[in-house]
Amino acid sequence: MPYHEINFLRSSFNKIKAIGFNPKYFSYRVKWNFLGKYPFQTFVPIHIDLETASACNLRCTMCPHGYSDYKMTKGVLDFDLAVKIIKECSVIGVSSLKLSGRGEALLHPNLIDMVELAKSNGILDVMFNTNALLLSEEKTRYLIEAGIDLIIISVDGATKETYESIRIGSNYEKVVNNIDYLIRYRNENKKQKPLIRLQFVKMKENLHELDAFYRQWQEKVDVIANIDYSNRVKQESKAVTELQPIGRNYCPHPWRRLTVNASGKALMCCVDWDGKYVVGDCYQESIKKIWQGTKIKFGRKCIINLEHNKVPSCRDCFSPISYKWK
Q: What is the pTM of this model?
Protein backbone atom coordinates (compact mmCIF):
# COMPACT_ATOMS: atom_id res chain seq x y z
CA MET A 1 0.00 0.00 0.00
CA PRO A 2 1.31 3.50 -0.83
CA TYR A 3 -0.37 5.01 2.28
CA HIS A 4 1.10 4.31 5.72
CA GLU A 5 -0.33 5.59 8.99
CA ILE A 6 2.24 6.20 11.72
CA ASN A 7 1.24 4.81 15.14
CA PHE A 8 -1.82 2.93 13.91
CA LEU A 9 -3.27 2.33 17.37
CA ARG A 10 -3.23 6.01 18.28
CA SER A 11 -4.78 6.93 14.93
CA SER A 12 -7.51 4.32 15.37
CA PHE A 13 -8.34 5.60 18.85
CA ASN A 14 -8.60 9.18 17.57
CA LYS A 15 -10.88 8.10 14.73
CA ILE A 16 -13.21 6.24 17.08
CA LYS A 17 -13.26 9.20 19.47
CA ALA A 18 -14.22 11.60 16.65
CA ILE A 19 -16.84 9.33 15.07
CA GLY A 20 -18.44 7.93 18.20
CA PHE A 21 -20.72 4.91 18.00
CA ASN A 22 -22.23 5.11 14.53
CA PRO A 23 -23.28 1.75 13.01
CA LYS A 24 -23.80 3.32 9.57
CA TYR A 25 -20.25 4.65 9.54
CA PHE A 26 -18.74 1.31 10.55
CA SER A 27 -20.86 -0.50 7.95
CA TYR A 28 -19.53 1.85 5.28
CA ARG A 29 -15.92 1.19 6.37
CA VAL A 30 -16.46 -2.57 6.32
CA LYS A 31 -17.73 -2.30 2.73
CA TRP A 32 -14.78 -0.09 1.81
CA ASN A 33 -12.27 -2.58 3.17
CA PHE A 34 -14.05 -5.56 1.63
CA LEU A 35 -14.01 -3.98 -1.82
CA GLY A 36 -10.34 -3.21 -1.33
CA LYS A 37 -9.73 -6.95 -1.66
CA TYR A 38 -12.65 -8.40 -3.62
CA PRO A 39 -14.37 -7.18 -6.81
CA PHE A 40 -18.08 -6.96 -6.05
CA GLN A 41 -20.55 -4.87 -8.04
CA THR A 42 -22.43 -2.54 -5.68
CA PHE A 43 -25.68 -0.82 -6.65
CA VAL A 44 -24.18 2.65 -6.16
CA PRO A 45 -20.67 3.90 -5.31
CA ILE A 46 -19.62 4.06 -1.67
CA HIS A 47 -17.57 7.19 -2.27
CA ILE A 48 -17.47 10.12 -4.70
CA ASP A 49 -14.39 12.20 -5.44
CA LEU A 50 -15.90 15.52 -6.49
CA GLU A 51 -13.14 17.72 -7.84
CA THR A 52 -14.01 21.23 -6.72
CA ALA A 53 -10.91 22.70 -8.37
CA SER A 54 -8.44 21.45 -10.96
CA ALA A 55 -6.42 24.65 -10.49
CA CYS A 56 -3.81 24.98 -7.75
CA ASN A 57 -2.09 27.84 -5.96
CA LEU A 58 1.23 25.96 -5.63
CA ARG A 59 3.76 24.44 -8.04
CA CYS A 60 5.09 21.45 -6.10
CA THR A 61 8.13 19.67 -7.46
CA MET A 62 6.54 16.19 -7.57
CA CYS A 63 3.21 17.35 -9.02
CA PRO A 64 2.06 18.02 -12.59
CA HIS A 65 1.13 21.55 -11.48
CA GLY A 66 4.84 22.16 -11.03
CA TYR A 67 5.53 21.61 -14.74
CA SER A 68 4.61 24.43 -17.13
CA ASP A 69 4.52 22.09 -20.12
CA TYR A 70 1.99 19.75 -18.51
CA LYS A 71 -1.30 20.36 -20.30
CA MET A 72 -4.47 20.22 -18.26
CA THR A 73 -7.64 22.26 -17.95
CA LYS A 74 -7.46 24.41 -14.82
CA GLY A 75 -10.63 25.78 -13.27
CA VAL A 76 -13.33 25.19 -10.68
CA LEU A 77 -16.44 23.01 -10.64
CA ASP A 78 -19.75 24.60 -11.59
CA PHE A 79 -21.60 25.12 -8.32
CA ASP A 80 -25.02 24.17 -9.73
CA LEU A 81 -23.57 20.86 -10.91
CA ALA A 82 -22.03 20.30 -7.48
CA VAL A 83 -25.45 20.85 -5.86
CA LYS A 84 -27.05 18.37 -8.27
CA ILE A 85 -24.44 15.70 -7.56
CA ILE A 86 -24.47 16.17 -3.77
CA LYS A 87 -28.26 15.91 -3.63
CA GLU A 88 -28.21 12.78 -5.76
CA CYS A 89 -25.54 11.25 -3.52
CA SER A 90 -27.87 11.78 -0.59
CA VAL A 91 -30.84 10.18 -2.34
CA ILE A 92 -29.01 7.06 -3.57
CA GLY A 93 -27.07 6.51 -0.34
CA VAL A 94 -23.48 7.44 -1.10
CA SER A 95 -21.64 7.29 2.23
CA SER A 96 -18.53 9.38 1.60
CA LEU A 97 -17.68 12.53 -0.35
CA LYS A 98 -14.28 14.04 -0.96
CA LEU A 99 -14.49 17.64 -2.22
CA SER A 100 -11.09 17.71 -3.89
CA GLY A 101 -9.06 16.25 -6.72
CA ARG A 102 -6.12 17.50 -8.76
CA GLY A 103 -6.15 21.05 -7.39
CA GLU A 104 -6.59 23.09 -4.23
CA ALA A 105 -10.13 22.72 -2.87
CA LEU A 106 -10.04 26.05 -1.00
CA LEU A 107 -9.85 27.91 -4.33
CA HIS A 108 -13.56 27.18 -4.83
CA PRO A 109 -15.66 30.11 -3.53
CA ASN A 110 -18.51 27.76 -2.54
CA LEU A 111 -16.58 25.00 -0.80
CA ILE A 112 -18.15 25.75 2.59
CA ASP A 113 -21.64 25.75 1.01
CA MET A 114 -20.92 22.29 -0.44
CA VAL A 115 -19.83 20.96 2.95
CA GLU A 116 -22.95 22.36 4.59
CA LEU A 117 -25.21 20.93 1.86
CA ALA A 118 -23.61 17.49 2.06
CA LYS A 119 -23.88 17.30 5.84
CA SER A 120 -27.43 18.65 5.95
CA ASN A 121 -28.38 15.96 3.42
CA GLY A 122 -26.95 13.15 5.50
CA ILE A 123 -23.64 12.31 3.82
CA LEU A 124 -21.74 10.40 6.51
CA ASP A 125 -18.14 11.32 5.74
CA VAL A 126 -17.31 14.66 4.08
CA MET A 127 -13.68 15.63 3.56
CA PHE A 128 -11.16 17.42 1.38
CA ASN A 129 -7.43 17.60 0.75
CA THR A 130 -5.58 20.89 1.06
CA ASN A 131 -2.12 22.41 1.28
CA ALA A 132 -3.59 24.69 4.01
CA LEU A 133 -2.07 27.90 2.66
CA LEU A 134 -5.57 29.33 2.13
CA LEU A 135 -7.01 27.86 5.33
CA SER A 136 -7.66 31.22 6.96
CA GLU A 137 -9.12 31.61 10.43
CA GLU A 138 -12.48 32.63 8.97
CA LYS A 139 -12.64 29.64 6.63
CA THR A 140 -11.64 27.34 9.47
CA ARG A 141 -14.51 28.56 11.63
CA TYR A 142 -17.07 28.28 8.84
CA LEU A 143 -15.88 24.81 7.78
CA ILE A 144 -16.12 23.47 11.32
CA GLU A 145 -19.56 24.99 11.85
CA ALA A 146 -20.66 23.51 8.49
CA GLY A 147 -19.79 20.07 9.85
CA ILE A 148 -16.69 18.99 7.92
CA ASP A 149 -15.65 15.49 9.05
CA LEU A 150 -12.06 15.23 7.87
CA ILE A 151 -9.41 17.68 6.66
CA ILE A 152 -6.34 16.12 5.02
CA ILE A 153 -3.33 18.44 4.94
CA SER A 154 -0.13 17.84 2.99
CA VAL A 155 3.07 19.08 4.66
CA ASP A 156 6.19 17.57 3.09
CA GLY A 157 8.84 18.82 5.49
CA ALA A 158 9.69 19.71 9.06
CA THR A 159 11.68 22.86 8.27
CA LYS A 160 11.01 25.96 6.24
CA GLU A 161 13.93 25.25 3.93
CA THR A 162 12.88 21.73 2.95
CA TYR A 163 9.15 22.40 2.86
CA GLU A 164 9.39 25.51 0.66
CA SER A 165 11.90 23.86 -1.68
CA ILE A 166 9.24 21.21 -2.44
CA ARG A 167 5.99 23.16 -2.16
CA ILE A 168 6.93 26.03 -4.44
CA GLY A 169 4.93 29.17 -3.72
CA SER A 170 3.92 28.27 -0.19
CA ASN A 171 4.88 29.80 3.14
CA TYR A 172 5.89 27.41 5.90
CA GLU A 173 5.12 29.71 8.83
CA LYS A 174 1.69 30.58 7.47
CA VAL A 175 0.77 26.94 6.89
CA VAL A 176 1.90 25.94 10.39
CA ASN A 177 -0.05 28.83 11.91
CA ASN A 178 -3.16 27.87 9.93
CA ILE A 179 -2.95 24.27 11.14
CA ASP A 180 -2.37 25.37 14.72
CA TYR A 181 -5.44 27.62 14.58
CA LEU A 182 -7.54 24.76 13.15
CA ILE A 183 -6.49 22.51 16.04
CA ARG A 184 -6.98 25.25 18.64
CA TYR A 185 -10.42 26.37 17.41
CA ARG A 186 -11.72 22.80 17.27
CA ASN A 187 -10.42 21.93 20.73
CA GLU A 188 -11.40 25.16 22.44
CA ASN A 189 -14.94 24.82 21.12
CA LYS A 190 -15.07 21.18 22.26
CA LYS A 191 -15.74 19.83 18.78
CA GLN A 192 -14.96 16.20 18.00
CA LYS A 193 -14.63 17.00 14.31
CA PRO A 194 -13.00 17.51 11.97
CA LEU A 195 -10.53 14.68 12.24
CA ILE A 196 -7.22 16.28 11.24
CA ARG A 197 -4.81 14.22 9.17
CA LEU A 198 -1.34 15.38 8.13
CA GLN A 199 0.48 13.54 5.39
CA PHE A 200 4.03 13.59 4.11
CA VAL A 201 5.09 12.41 0.64
CA LYS A 202 8.36 10.53 1.11
CA MET A 203 11.05 11.63 -1.35
CA LYS A 204 14.81 11.69 -1.52
CA GLU A 205 14.90 15.39 -0.64
CA ASN A 206 12.78 15.17 2.52
CA LEU A 207 13.18 11.69 3.97
CA HIS A 208 15.70 12.96 6.51
CA GLU A 209 12.93 15.07 8.11
CA LEU A 210 10.26 12.39 8.44
CA ASP A 211 11.07 11.62 12.08
CA ALA A 212 11.17 15.32 12.99
CA PHE A 213 7.84 15.81 11.19
CA TYR A 214 6.31 13.07 13.29
CA ARG A 215 7.68 14.47 16.55
CA GLN A 216 6.45 17.95 15.65
CA TRP A 217 2.84 16.91 15.05
CA GLN A 218 2.21 13.64 16.92
CA GLU A 219 0.58 15.25 19.95
CA LYS A 220 -1.34 17.83 17.95
CA VAL A 221 -3.18 16.10 15.11
CA ASP A 222 -5.25 12.94 15.02
CA VAL A 223 -3.60 11.01 12.21
CA ILE A 224 -0.13 11.23 10.66
CA ALA A 225 0.63 9.36 7.45
CA ASN A 226 3.48 9.04 5.02
CA ILE A 227 2.82 8.36 1.36
CA ASP A 228 5.06 6.66 -1.14
CA TYR A 229 6.13 8.92 -3.99
CA SER A 230 4.49 8.19 -7.35
CA ASN A 231 5.91 9.55 -10.59
CA ARG A 232 3.06 11.49 -12.17
CA VAL A 233 5.00 13.50 -14.73
CA LYS A 234 7.66 11.02 -15.93
CA GLN A 235 10.36 13.02 -14.16
CA GLU A 236 13.62 11.72 -12.77
CA SER A 237 12.38 9.57 -9.92
CA LYS A 238 12.31 11.01 -6.42
CA ALA A 239 11.47 7.62 -4.86
CA VAL A 240 13.30 6.66 -1.70
CA THR A 241 13.47 3.00 -2.72
CA GLU A 242 13.43 1.98 -6.36
CA LEU A 243 11.16 -1.01 -6.93
CA GLN A 244 10.56 -2.85 -10.17
CA PRO A 245 7.01 -3.69 -11.29
CA ILE A 246 6.66 -7.38 -12.16
CA GLY A 247 3.01 -7.41 -13.19
CA ARG A 248 -0.37 -5.80 -12.73
CA ASN A 249 -2.58 -6.09 -9.70
CA TYR A 250 -6.22 -5.90 -8.71
CA CYS A 251 -7.15 -2.25 -8.29
CA PRO A 252 -10.13 -1.51 -6.02
CA HIS A 253 -10.91 2.02 -7.22
CA PRO A 254 -13.62 1.18 -9.84
CA TRP A 255 -15.57 -0.90 -7.31
CA ARG A 256 -15.81 1.58 -4.47
CA ARG A 257 -15.45 5.11 -5.81
CA LEU A 258 -16.33 7.31 -8.77
CA THR A 259 -14.45 10.49 -9.66
CA VAL A 260 -16.07 13.58 -11.15
CA ASN A 261 -13.58 16.14 -12.41
CA ALA A 262 -14.04 19.91 -12.51
CA SER A 263 -15.37 19.69 -16.07
CA GLY A 264 -18.19 17.38 -14.98
CA LYS A 265 -16.71 14.26 -16.59
CA ALA A 266 -17.01 11.02 -14.64
CA LEU A 267 -13.87 8.90 -14.44
CA MET A 268 -13.30 5.33 -13.34
CA CYS A 269 -10.28 6.28 -11.28
CA CYS A 270 -9.17 9.16 -9.05
CA VAL A 271 -5.63 9.06 -10.49
CA ASP A 272 -6.77 9.53 -14.09
CA TRP A 273 -5.42 13.09 -14.14
CA ASP A 274 -5.65 13.37 -17.93
CA GLY A 275 -9.20 12.08 -18.26
CA LYS A 276 -8.07 9.23 -20.50
CA TYR A 277 -11.08 7.03 -19.73
CA VAL A 278 -14.31 8.98 -19.35
CA VAL A 279 -17.21 6.78 -18.26
CA GLY A 280 -19.93 9.42 -18.21
CA ASP A 281 -20.96 13.08 -18.23
CA CYS A 282 -22.58 14.35 -15.04
CA TYR A 283 -24.26 17.20 -16.90
CA GLN A 284 -26.22 14.62 -18.89
CA GLU A 285 -26.35 11.48 -16.73
CA SER A 286 -26.96 10.51 -13.13
CA ILE A 287 -24.29 9.09 -10.85
CA LYS A 288 -26.32 5.89 -10.57
CA LYS A 289 -26.58 5.45 -14.34
CA ILE A 290 -22.86 6.05 -14.84
CA TRP A 291 -21.95 3.61 -12.06
CA GLN A 292 -24.02 0.88 -13.72
CA GLY A 293 -23.00 1.84 -17.27
CA THR A 294 -21.26 -0.23 -19.94
CA LYS A 295 -18.01 1.78 -19.99
CA ILE A 296 -17.19 1.39 -16.31
CA LYS A 297 -18.27 -2.29 -16.42
CA PHE A 298 -15.84 -2.87 -19.27
CA GLY A 299 -13.05 -1.25 -17.25
CA ARG A 300 -13.81 -3.42 -14.24
CA LYS A 301 -13.79 -6.57 -16.37
CA CYS A 302 -10.39 -5.66 -17.80
CA ILE A 303 -8.95 -5.17 -14.30
CA ILE A 304 -10.34 -8.51 -13.06
CA ASN A 305 -8.67 -10.21 -16.05
CA LEU A 306 -5.47 -8.17 -15.49
CA GLU A 307 -5.91 -6.72 -18.97
CA HIS A 308 -5.10 -3.18 -17.88
CA ASN A 309 -3.63 -2.43 -21.31
CA LYS A 310 -7.16 -2.36 -22.76
CA VAL A 311 -8.12 0.67 -20.63
CA PRO A 312 -6.35 3.96 -21.51
CA SER A 313 -6.24 5.24 -17.93
CA CYS A 314 -4.90 1.92 -16.60
CA ARG A 315 -2.33 1.23 -19.31
CA ASP A 316 0.31 3.61 -17.95
CA CYS A 317 -1.10 4.15 -14.46
CA PHE A 318 1.34 5.72 -11.98
CA SER A 319 -0.45 4.45 -8.84
CA PRO A 320 1.60 1.84 -6.92
CA ILE A 321 -1.58 -0.01 -5.94
CA SER A 322 -2.08 -1.08 -9.55
CA TYR A 323 1.13 -3.14 -9.74
CA LYS A 324 2.90 -6.09 -8.21
CA TRP A 325 6.38 -5.10 -7.09
CA LYS A 326 9.71 -6.86 -6.81
A: 0.96
